[in-house]
Write a structure and sequence with these properties.
The complex is a heterodimer of chains A (252) and B (304). Chain A has 252 residues and is mainly α. Chain A is built from 10 helices and no strands. The relative contact order of chain B is 0.14. The chains are: A mainly alpha (252), B alpha/beta (304). At the A-B interface, helix 1 and helix 5 of A face helix 2 and helix 3 of B.
Chain lengths: 252, 304
């Protein structure tokens, strides 16, 4: 366990000032910033959503609506590939493979950092949503809406989206481990994502993990539990990925 | 009994494909405390051997032992005692020198004070907070060695560490490695394709060519080969007659590009031979000693 934690600390340090870290910050604040600018331009805050629905929930879901279908999977494809490519770009795989730690530790520590970065992205996105709601509320509405902040609702929705991301994270982690360049996994991800969006209305689209966040957003009725399917995909991909990575003829 | 070898391989073979065998029965014996120069021309199989030693390539046959322990069974223990630099430096260019060291400090779990120690050792203290992307190649090589030394290893494996360095950088690297070997007792396995680059520091030499070991021994054994291979060259007015006189004197002579070469002999014997040539009416224009330097032995051994 100590070895794993130390390895995570080492992996996390590598993301400092990296493109993946900037992507995480910029991606997290992008949609909320657009809403903030929109509110300021229109001169009102989230109270304008009315009183029929909780304006916090409405604002939160509107932000997610713009994020879920394309930007979230795309951002994850980019981040997972960028983090893994740090080793290829710096010719550092060979050094990592001769570090005195179990291969599974190296594999899981890097994956954990990608998951942590995704979590960080969620935090930035949520903070951005709060800022984009609070600033115009104080500027134009004379304060926050009377209805309280639905923390539990936020937590539930965030958790659902996070689980829906896991298979794409695992897919691109494994692809980037196996393919030594940045463009190929990115191209693959983009192609499958666009294909998924084109076929999004298809009844079996839930077989494509790239559709999961969109399906969560749409709350489409499905014959299977999407979250269990997502976790299953993730587990299988992580295990297969480790097997492939471990059996690579040449390391580094 | 403890093995006298820090690294010992036997029957190490490696095939890139069924037709392409890149290593043939490599038997490597790196004694504890030695600076072992692993020499060979480009493409001879040096890097493949070093990659196999460290598990970067999947072993196909043979065995690899470090300090008498099989690599596969004691991988982590062995790597805790081994520092390495294989081919180009493995550094994170977006991080500073100190941050690069911290990446490995977390893994090796060594004290923070070690960062400063290794930076001082490789003379990079003044650039500790500079991004590696702004480093010269020499600085990158030194920082890579600092990383390899972070966990105070007993063994260093360096693959052409002076590649791309200027003569001053090569001399600096050599001094550093000698210092590490003498003061800290670190065994060093260093590969190179230039004998001249490492002959001043190595105690043992292994020469690989076309994937096979063509020489392994101490630097002194290679020196003996050098002496044994030295010749005396004669240039005379009547080459054929001179050849007869030399052979009658009891020496085996060879004709090369109009000159006669005979094996090295004592000065007194050489003077007698010269006298006989002159008495036979032959003008002797030149008598010179041609020493077989280490470079030419290396070239001879690695001739196809």
């Amino acid at each position: 366990m100590k070895e794993y934690i130390n390895s995570i600390r080492s992996e996390h340090l590598k993301t400092k000032r990296s493109a993946a870290m900037w992507l995480c910050v910029a991606g997290g604040f992008f949609i909320p910033l657009i809403y903030l600018i929109g509110f300021i331009k229109m001169g009102h805050g989230i109270k304008s959503y009315g009183t029929i629905v909780n304006p916090w929930e409405k604002h939160f879901m509107l932000c997610w609506q713009n994020m879920a279908l394309f930007l979230l999977p795309m951002g994850i494809i980019l981040a997972a590939s960028l983090i893994t490519q740090i080793e290829y770009k710096n010719n550092a795989w060979k050094q990592l493979h001769v570090a005195p730690q179990k291969p599974i530790t190296t594999y899981l520590a890097k994956l954990s950092v990608i998951l942590y970065m995704t979590l960080k992205f969620f935090v930035f996105f949520n903070v951005g949503i709060f800022i984009s709601a609070m600033v115009p509320a104080f500027m134009f509405d004379g304060g926050l809406p009377e209805s309280g902040i639905p923390w539990l609702f936020f937590l539930k929705v965030n958790t659902k989206f996070f689980i829906s991301c896991l298979p794409v994270i695992a897919t691109h982690y494994v692809l980037s481990l196996m393919i030594g360049n940045f463009i190929a996994p990115l191209g693959f991800g983009l192609a499958v994502l666009i294909g998924t969006l084109i076929g999004f209305r298809w009844e079996y689209i839930y077989f494509s993990p790239y559709s999961f966040s969109g399906l969560v957003m749409q709350q489409r009725h499905l014959p299977i539990n999407l979250y269990l399917l997502s976790l299953l995909y993730f587990l299988v991909l992580v295990v297969v990925g480790y097997y492939l990575h471990q059996n690579k003829k040449q390391k580094g | 009994m403890q093995s006298p070898y820090a690294i010992e391989t036997s029957n190490l073979n490696y095939y890139f494909s069924k037709q392409e065998q890149v290593l043939k029965n490599i038997q490597l014996h790196v004694p504890v405390g030695a600076i072992y120069g692993f020499l060979g021309p480009n493409g001879a199989g040096k890097t493949t051997t070093l990659r196999l030693l460290l598990g970067l390539l999947k072993k196909q046959s043979g065995s690899v032992k470090f300090f008498d322990k099989h690599f596969e069974e004691h991988r982590i223990d062995i790597l805790k005692n081994t520092g390495s630099l294989i081919e180009a430096p493995s550094l994170y260019h977006h991080l500073t020198a100190v941050e690069n060291l911290k990446v490995w400090q977390h893994i090796y779990q060594c004290p923070m004070a070690r960062l400063n120690d290794v930076l001082q050792l490789v003379k990079l203290t003044h650039t500790a907070n500079k991004k590696v992307s702004q480093f010269s190649l020499g600085m990158k090589q030194r920082l890579s060695i600092a990383i390899a030394l972070m966990h105070q290893p007993r063994l260093l494996i360096l693959d052409e560490p002076s590649n791309g360095l200027d003569p001053a950088g090569i001399a600096e690297m050599r001094d550093l490695l000698i210092q590490l070997n003498k003061q800290q007792g670190i065994t060093i396995l260093i590969s190179s394709h230039l004998l001249s680059e490492i002959e001043k520091m190595v105690s043992h030499i292994g020469i690989i060519h076309h994937g096979a070991m063509v020489f392994e021994g101490t630097a002194q054994q290679l020196q003996l080969k050098q002496q044994a291979g030295s010749v005396v060259v004669f240039q005379t007015s009547q080459t054929q007659v001179a050849l007869g006189v030399i052979e009658a004197f009891g020496c085996s002579a060879q004709l090369k590009e109009g000159r006669i070469t005979v094996p090295q002999m004592e000065n007194q014997k050489l003077a007698q031979l010269n006298k006989q040539l002159v008495e036979a009416g032959i003008d002797v224009f030149e008598i010179s000693q041609q020493k077989n330097d280490l470079e030419s032995i290396f070239i001879d051994l690695t001739k196809a």
